[in-house]
Amino acid sequence: MATEKGKKDQKPDSKKQEELDVHREDGANEFLTTNQGVRINDNQHTLSAGDRGPSLLEDFIFREKMTHFDHERIPERVVHPRGSGAHGVFEAYESMEKYTKASFLSKKGKKTPVFTRFSTVVGFRGSTDLARDVRGFAVKFYTDEGNYDLVGNNMPVFFIQDAMKFPDLVHSIKPEPHNEMPQATAAHDTFWDFASLMPEATHVIMWILSGRGIPRSYRMMEGFGVHTFKWVNAKGKVTFVKYHWKPVLGTHGVLWDEAQKISGKDPDFHRRDLWEAIDSGSFPEWELGVQMVEEKDEHKFDFDLLDPTKLIPEELVPVKKIGKMTLNRNPDNFFSETEQVAFHPGHVVPGIDFSNDPLLQGRLFSYLDTQLIRLGGPNFHEIPINRPRAPKHNNQRDGFMRQEVNKGRVSYEPNSIGGGCPFQAGMKDGGFVSHAEKVDAKKIRARSKSFNDYFSQASMFYHSQTAAEKKQIISAFQFELGKVEIEEIRKRMVGLLTQVDKDLAKQVAEGLGFEVPRGPMQPVQRGVPADADPKDYEPVDVKQKVKTDKALSMDYTVKGNISTRQVAFLCSDGVDEKSITPMRAALLKEGAVVKIIAPHLGTIETSAGNRIKVDKSFSTSGSVLFDAIFVPSGEKSIMMLEKNAMAVNFINESYKHCKALAIEGQATKLLKYTYFGELAKTNDLEEEGVIIQENPSKKFSKKFIEAIGQHRFWNRKETENIPT
Ligand code: HDE
């Protein structure tokens, strides 16, 4: 629940917020009424013939209440049903007028209200946040020239090259149709069957099976527009752009073992994390960046700019940061705002246009179409969260749930009765004009051969990862393919992996208990049109100029900021205040969140006889919900913790998951119960983020803070063998 304090910290400072205020409803200090405004006297009983008799049909109050309830649900999104949203503001760093006439990017310091929704793709609305999946990253800019939606993902490439394949992709990855299993995962036969027959999916699969597929937080993910878009300036000059959102807190992921446990402990982990960060005034921020390519350079790359399975390596075209988005207000109502918000890549403003990416072109149809069923008709743009801030006038009329009351006799154009209004806008008045691209072509169903390089960027991605990241990808493949029942599919997929990296394929195969299939790849029965020559669809091996790109590794990300990092203090009665107090103060100063975890809720008594509040008991918490763990000193407290299996498990599991640990004073006695206690006797584990301190020292908290700032110590050895 939002605290009163938190609410006040949130900043309803935009025009869009003022507009939403008109629609906000608050029942505080008001009478309960029907939808017609009639005050209700008894909300406990239906109207009946006597106190033991049948209910009466005339009970309009009951019927209205129940009918509304019966109709509460709307269809969830066909993809991306589970998500979380927040309001915020985008501020431009400088004028981009040279490249685009979009007004929200035209002036340094210009602020534009936004609503952003993050999502998983596959799981239903009630599924877990920590599924291994792509994350949606959709931003609606309420610009003064109309709404602009940048509907992206947390990965810069997609599974397929042509929109025609989207329903097949989604059918394969969703729960299987006969028994609706499994939930929120790609780890089943139909997805890997499809993927192993669609070599173009290999690149995005590498991303999903890396830490990007299991983010630490929505606030710690990158976002990408995926497709190449066009920017058009006032003179009509085109620049191709790729969009990037870079999180100020860095890009971080969790381990798969952790993700699975979080899904049990707190399936709302990402939703809660976003909500609490905003609620506490630690507003998440992302910088918007663009990679710009001049129109004349469209064909200068080893890949096709129109191919959504390819990225432009940052080594080739650097990302220019052009603004910052800050999310500073939680929604008041999940359904009204987060559920009803309707994004559409076709919501563009003058200065922004589409490339001919065949996936993007298909999306331009799908998003409007899907809202018609999801939100029940053509007037979804009138729902408050979807309304543009820019004035809206046209001759569209009627339809289910129309709210606008259009005045006058005229709903057509041209007209003389209405004085020709509303007018078409010339370019100087901000009228949208599509980029006049010359197209002279035959009407065909085909794909350019420049799209046929399926593996070189998948290899580039894999080769850009650190050793620890590669290890995670290998075990992710072993898990995902290990869930596949049909062996032929596993083998076919490993066959594809040989094209990415021979060693990767070998190690994955080892985990699956077979040898890498020898010889030429089995013929891939991938989608080849009936009368086409399969040779035209053979993968081509393009030697990319860029073999590795450090921007592709999460290890290369921003580190050192511990703001909002969750730190568990493991305590019991008798904990030493002199140990807790300075550590807590030092962490809070850096913006971290401290939680006292103890064997029971309520309070515990410190060695000095004071009582401190317990935030969570061991049974309602778990190490996987934290970034770092501190075990403070205190003889009695430690004696109780060493007998508590959950406390010892908390420490071992944090070590296993490569988290920063600080152990002080008498707490070092606990080391003998841990899996790294022996190691700590002979090795200095500080380099690996384990800070052990027998006697109090000022440097202690500093070292711990530095360790938390590293996010994780992925190189910690032999952690897989720790049983938890
Ligand atoms: Fe989507 N996608 N998509 N998608 N997509 C939807 O629209 C679709 C694609 C993305 O928080 C749907 O309103 C097609 C790429 C996000 O509300 C639907 C194709 C990217 C969201 C749809 C794609 C995305 C959606 C379902 C291939 C990254 C959630 C509900 C041609 C650039 C938006 C809805 C939100 C949602 C169709 C591929 C991102 C059915 C046909 C590529 C973030 O219209």
Indicate the topology.
Elements: H1 4-9, H2 15-21, H3 60-70, E1 83-92, E2 111-120, E3 135-143, E4 146-153, H4 166-173, H5 189-197, H6 202-208, E5 223-224, E6 229-232, E7 238-247, H7 256-265, H8 269-279, E8 285-294, E9 320-329, H9 334-339, E10 352-354, H10 358-374, H11 456-463, H12 467-482, H13 487-497, H14 502-512, E11 566-570, H15 577-589, E12 593-598, E13 603-605, E14 611-613, E15 616-617, E16 628-631, H16 635-642, H17 645-656, E17 660-664, H18 677-682, E18 690-693, H19 698-709
Parallel strand pairs: 11-12, 11-16, 12-15, 16-17, 17-18
Antiparallel strand pairs: 1-2, 1-9, 2-3, 3-4, 5-7, 6-7, 6-10, 7-8, 8-9, 13-14
Helix pairs in contact: 4-5, 5-13, 6-11, 12-14, 13-14, 15-19
Pfam families: Catalase (PF00199), Catalase-rel (PF06628), Catalase_C (PF18011)
Catalytic activity: 2 H2O2 = O2 + 2 H2O
Cross-link (3'-histidyl-3-tyrosine (His-Tyr)): 344-367
